[in-house]
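Researcher: We're teaching a course module on how sequence relates to structure. For the next exercise, students receive a sequence and then see the predicted structure as tokens, so they can try to spot secondary structure elements on their own. Here is the exercise chain.
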Amino acid sequence: MSRYQKVFLIDDDELHNFLCESIIRSYKFSASVTSFLWAEEALQTLASLSQEDPASFPEIIFLDIHIPGMDGWEFIEEFKKLPGGLIQNCQLFVLSSAIDKQNLSPSPQQSVVTDYFSKPFSPDILNIISDMYSVR
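Model: And here is the predicted structure for the students to work with:
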């Protein structure tokens, strides 16, 4: 049985999304994994879910910060405008190629970011989440 019901991946790298999906599925971390190449598309989906089907709102979002169009920081600012009860029950994890977390975390965004992880995505990230974070 999966630990979570729904996970969203937001990354413009199709290969990285495929890798993440494969790891999440093979470790039975989530029953459902949905990937987005564009932050705008993910935000529109989240907004629709918040109004039409709040029970289907993801429990976890993995977000790349450096993506074209709406970047990860802009996504976070818009994400914070979604209904509070939904975003409080959704853990947002930033994935980045940057090694130093200090370079990743402007303080206004931190309020909704659960944690930061360096790429590449790995089963170790899932283990850390399982060990350190629980569904709120």
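Model: If you want an answer key for the exercise: The beta strands are 4-10, 30-36, 60-64, 91-96, 113-118. The longest strand covers residues 4-10.
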